[in-house]
Amino acid sequence: MRVVIAEDNALLREGLVLLLTSAGHEVAAVAASGPEVLPALLEHRPDVAVLDVRMPPGFRDEGLRAALAARAEIPGMPVLVLSQYVEETYAAELLGGGAGGVGYLLKDRVGRVDEFLDALERVAAGGTALDPEVVAELLATRKDDPVDRLTPREREVLRLMAEGRDNATIATQLVVTERAVSKHIGNVFLKLGLPPSDSGHRRVLAVLAYLDKRFHA
């Protein structure tokens, strides 16, 4: 895969370059400040972009703004955002519209090499990869929220779906059969008022689209 990296921390930036090249990927460009990000993305049109949220000069949301601008120019361009903290507003904005090819991981996750590379590949393929802590924030209960109607097990299944896990992985993690997982997923869609969907990214994106609406209600 061809990757563009946007990260102002030199140590982390070089670490990402080494990690990705060692895994057989090509780093097409790196950006160390907000103004450098969008030109790099538009010039190189990578298979996936790995972006920090807060970058110079303002250290607010420069990386995210560049990612959103690039996706407006190149619809569906895969973006994996890295952040030091769970920032709900940024996560919700990135997921706006239910488009695929998005990820939001905490930087600690980069240290878990296999998990990071797996997430990168899922995003590049048009899927989703959300950090469990981000998912926990998105699933925070709210009065009269349809999520409240889910059973504890259905909430577990929804959480794993939002992380981008397939039925087999969910079954393994919950120590149940895939048939049981399919049944739980059917109940989740029914209770959330979402149309049935087959396995794959579409069902994940439907759940994420629903979760995104909760931030903009």
UniProtKB/TrEMBL annotation:
Domain of life according to the entry: Bacteria
InterPro entries: CheY-like_superfamily (IPR011006), Sig_transdc_resp-reg_C-effctor (IPR016032), Sig_transdc_resp-reg_receiver (IPR001789), Tscrpt_reg_LuxR_C (IPR000792), WalR-like (IPR039420)
Residues bearing PTM 4-aspartylphosphate: 52
SUPFAM superfamilies, per database record: C-terminal effector domain of the bipartite response regulators, CheY-like
Coiled-coil ranges per UniProt: none
UniProt entry tagged with the keyword Phosphoprotein: yes
UniProt-recorded name of the protein: Response regulator transcription factor
Natural source organism: Streptomyces omiyaensis
